[in-house]
Amino acid sequence: MKIKDRIKGFQRLPSSELRPHPKNWRQHPDAQVNSFKNVLASIGVAGACIVYEPSDGDGYMLIDGHLRADQLDDVPCLLLDVTDEEAEQLLASYDTLTYLADVDKDKVGELIDSVPELNDDLLGQLQILAGEWDTDMKTGEELIDTDGLTDEGIMATIKVVVLQEQKEDATGCIAQALHDAGMEFIVE
Length: 188
Prior knowledge:
With 188 residues, the chain is an alpha/beta fold. It has eight helices and five strands; from the N terminus they run E-E-H-E-E-H-E-H-H-H-H-H-H. The protein folds into three domains: 7-99, Conserved hypothetical protein from pyrococcus furiosus pfu- 392566-001, ParB domain, CATH 3.90.1530.10; 102-134, no CATH class; 136-188, no CATH class.
């Protein structure tokens, strides 16, 4: 099988010339923005945005790297030769493929031990991946609140414990997942 090389070049572009993709589904909460700023401060720019020239002929449109483009004036970019439809396919699959990877908890633990300058948000995410997060979790039965519910309602009521600093992000993710599953989300 011959694989097409769709990268037509590399260029540094002013962030003002980069348009966010209107179908970009990734949102960047404060914890992620702050973590990214910390990485920029300690290491610098170490990755490129992915852009293409849309069919409307109006400059460059981001496929990946929206947060980078928001934080930098001079943005390193890989220029792709793709159609609008192909750009949408990349937008839908680029980070999603990463989420399909399995996690080697031992290697994540080694990484945590070897990188001293992780901020609390990044460290917390890595600890969760490594299974080291001390959350004082309860069993499923302890999480289900059955007071005043019929048998049909018992499985629809659960309690989720999140850290205060991650409450906004977690609440949004949980609400969206339940909405997508046709369920109601109520915060008490």
